[in-house]
# Entry
Amino acid sequence: KAGVTQTPRYLIKTRGQQVTLSCSPISGHRSVSWYQQTPGQGLQFLFEYFSETQRNKGNFPGRFSGRQFSNSRSEMNVSTLELGDSALYLCASSLAAGGPIDTQYFGPGTRLTVL
Amino acid sequence: AQSVAQPEDQVNVAEGNPLTVKCTYSVSGNPYLFWYVQYPNRGLQFLLKYITGDNLVKGSYGFEAEFNKSQTSFHLKKPSALVSDSALYFCAVRDRDTGGFKTIFGAGTRLFVKA
# Structure
């Protein structure tokens, strides 16, 4: 079974631009979560989607948004990019509805660099 | 609020020796604890989880973790370290939030195994 895939793997943008990252979960998985990983802040939760609905959201500004499609694929969008948005963005999928015992399976991440 | 602490930024161990990566947690209800490993330029890989039951949890690649409720700890262990175990290790707890659950990660511990 194929793992979680994320595209693109690397991205370079300039301040003020916007970016869209894509995540395809493991087949059959319906829950998708997004995380931002930086050396200073570590791994921080962005949001979680299940059945096209955002179930949970972390403490990020409104410039960060996401959505999930009927095939469970998810996208996240960052508008008006700032230098501090440079990070590794990780997507994780899980089988069930985001319960406490779900195991999350992570994609390789998208490395975003903002210049 | 729920939290996870990994008190060591780095652990150094010689190949063949046992290794321990420490994790302590703070939760208000039942703890749902996870260990993940991250290799360079890769996403996180699931190692093991504790939901309930036996305090000693066995996981992938020969790793195990011991849940200790009185000490609120969930240390990761391996009887004999390999050079290939060198990576970044994250302890995590699943936390109930307003809309569902989210994963809170520790800051990570970098493990160096020397040949």
Observations:
- The mean pLDDT of chain B is 92.
